[in-house]
DNA sequence: CCGATATACCTCGGGGTCGAGGTATTGTCG
DNA sequence: CGACAATACCTCGACCCCGAGGTATATCGG
């Protein structure tokens, strides 16, 4: 997740940790803040896996900076992930948004469309949120205003996204 | 998160682990599946903290069941959490939905309204998802269809939820 | 009566995340 | 000139989650 967001940002241009952090904060930070204790070990792991290299430059503003460059293996890992996201990347909105943020890096519109279709399939599945004993509750049966809020918002979200998915899939097919 | 969902479900009625699991799967399982290796240790932790007790009953259908009962301390912990959710519970949609699923357990409408207002404040904050170098990008500046999809869906979601929040807050004030 | 399935629970290792804390440099304001 | 903020990076322990695997009982079809 974090791992792939890092690769995605570095694909555009080499960054040093602090800049990378700003990008990550913009992408998901308002939802779920990202701490140094998460970011720097993640960078180390990626370096250890050979997906990126660090080049130390004398600090232009402050302490010496480690500019991070994606390796060919790093680019390959990014493409692999984008072509075949895990189920969690499809179902969890936060992760899904991260996939979308970098999906343009895939060059084949057919590959992009395939990913969008997986999300569409997921959103089209009926989901029941609540149970009364063993019986799943329908939206109409729920009297609690907060729980019906959950259903209302969830449905509005899927509707908006399904519409967008159809539009974008149509657009990809004309390409 | 999981912890509080467990307390929330047990508040309604005592359940054994397997039933609890079904409830949890219905609530968030289609987004993010919950594994045994997560659930049972969580139950153990709650028991160790004195928030629930386990009563072993001879299995009615299969293996002996451990029926889980909320203790007074468990009920108190649930109320504390609902009255003052963490920032992450407010900002992360998955967690927020869990808060909403159990918010009816608070008996004071003023307390419920205060929680809804925190979510409203969060959704009203302007958020920029993407940067070009150091400059935050506006929705109009984004040409990538996938990234503009992120913005479009995010905006549709907040709009729907803001409307619902206003309606529900009005409803709570008449009570 | 055998195997499959559903019920029901548990452990363990690997791995990721977090917050708290630490180090060091440069620029800015009073 | 001294304090402070911003830049820039790093470590550590605590904690939580996950998947893989294991145990055991009841029921039902063939």
Automatic annotation (TrEMBL), chains A, B:
Residues 6-78 form the Transcription regulator PadR N-terminal domain. Gene3D superfamilies: Winged helix-like DNA-binding domain superfamily/Winged helix DNA-binding domain (1.10.10.10). Pfam families: PadR. This is PadR family transcriptional regulator. It comes from Streptomyces viridochromogenes. PANTHER family: CONSERVED PROTEIN, PADR-FAMILY TRANSCRIPTIONAL REGULATOR. SUPFAM superfamilies: Winged helix' DNA-binding domain (SSF46785). Transmembrane segments: none annotated.
